[in-house]
Amino acid sequence: MKTTIEISKYPLNRNYEAPILDFIERMNAYQDIKVKTNATATHVVGDYDQVMKILQDEIKHSFAKYGKSIFVMKILHGALDI
């Protein structure tokens, strides 16, 4: 089953750019998903189970490395052409 997820990250500290850019860079490192970033969000398309596992790992990594952040996600059943 394919999914499309829109993610926005809001680090709760003054230096907010580095944690956002690191998250985007790490998401782009995965070969089996499609990632596109715009000014307000990052969109991820791929197999539902795989994308959810990647997000679980990367959000956990982000919390451990940068501390408190808010992640806002919209999850759609199906693959959008991003």
Please describe what this structure looks like.
This protein has 82 residues and is α+β, with helices and mostly antiparallel strands. Helices cover 38% and strands 35% of the residues. The chain has two helices and four strands. Strand 2 and strand 3 (42-47) form a beta hairpin.
Short description:
This protein is an alpha+beta fold and 82 residues long.
Low-confidence stretches: none
State the helicity in percent bands: 25-40%
Report the count of strand segments.
4
Main sheet properties: 4 strands, antiparallel
Which structural class matches the secondary elements? alpha+beta
SS strand fraction: 35-45%
Could you give the order of strands across the largest sheet?
A: 2-3-1-4
* CA gyration radius, whole angstroms: 12 Å
Q: What secondary-structure arrangement, pairings included, does this model have?
A:
Layout: E1 2-11, H1 17-28, E2 34-37, E3 42-47, H2 48-66, E4 69-77
Antiparallel strand pairs: 1-3, 1-4, 2-3
Helix pairs in contact: 1-2
List the keywords.
82 residues; alpha+beta; 4-stranded antiparallel beta sheet; 4 strands; globular
